[in-house]
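CHAIN AND CONFORMATION:
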Amino acid sequence: MIPKERSISVIGDNSEALLISVLLAETGNPNNLIGTFANISRDGRFGGGTEEAARLLQIHMRSGTVKKASSIDDLQTPNLSLCFLTEHADDSSNAVRVERQVRELATILKKGQILVYTGLCSPSFTRNRLKLILEKHSGFGVGEEIGLCYVPLLWNDERVQGIRETPKLVAGIGPEHLQQVQEVLLSIFPSLSVTSTLETAEAGGLCGPVYREVVRALELELAQMCVSRGVDYSSVMRFCLKTTTGGFGGPSPTTGNDLIASKIFLESLGKPNRPQLMRTARRINQEAPQQVLAMVKGALAQCGRRVRRSRIAIVGVEGLGMDRMSKFGDSEIISTLIRRGAIVSLYPGETNPGFGQLMINEGLKLKVEWDLTRVVQKAQCVIIALKPSQQESFMLTPQKLATEMDRPAAICDLSRVMEASNVERSGLFYTSIGRGNPTI
């Protein structure tokens, strides 16, 4: 076992670096976190699970379990055993960035030390590019004198415990080095599988996100087909959840970090006409915000209103097609509603305390409220894009919404957290993707 000293370093400016550093600290592994995060505890780029990890990081930094530095030059190598590099090689410029970081590390690595690359990349990238760079600039043989392992890791802002329990893959060159990495990884990821080659792990890392993106597109297409056939997609979804097709959980307009994987996948093929399925899935997912906007317009029309001058409350950010690096104005749904003259207010959600004024684009006419009741007051349309906490579920009921909202008013439920019949009994219009025209 690695002695409990600061012998592990994590390098990267993304949320995966934050995650690994925190999980190592939580399991008694002191480590260095190397990156240029700016005041990460209050950085408005982060939310959800990332914000949770940021709070934990502050605790471990105060206790001395995590030592933060901004540059590889600050890395102390004599006691270094493992070095995690988390950057994704999702395009040519980022691939060059990863290679440059490996080149810098190679010049300071000592015999017996191990590099663990965790970013998503195309199959063979780790062996054909990173291994060669390590050997050329370190002077050591990979697998014999120094180690090289690969662990695909992509974080879509799940809660820390949830991502920790998700099964992980690892592969490496050299059995002794791989065993050493396994011992550390098993302490932070209890479900760990060893693959036969680096290439297998690299392809496996792309499989899950690409699969989710294709399934999401299929759900959106099924929802659209239901509308054209007069079928309520909500009932289709409930039926699917009772059968073996449990993967169908309702279409969402957000693609999150899964786009990183599909981008690598498509670019790796090198053939512009293949595969059409993946390209079609990306197109469908990118068009999802337009379906949401059409749904909002139709819901307001049922209330005898137009988008212009209507009060629209957005509850939650999970379903808006935003990623952790976005500002509110980057959301097509928000920016289009404001551009069309709607009066828009937003409740980010209690699990997203990092979202605040830093997230508001300059000149964007958007009011951010931290009180769920206040944000829906006098609204003529509420867009629910929230994965509600227990407290929020108590507040987010048709009866409470009907009490606060203007009349007539509509609910556009992206998260499918409400029963249409309960909403309609409260005197509100209800609609969701795939439900067709709202009725009462």
In short: The mean pLDDT is 83. The longest helix spans residues 198-229. The two ends are 65 Å apart (CA to CA). The CA atoms of residues 170 and 182 lie 8 Å apart.
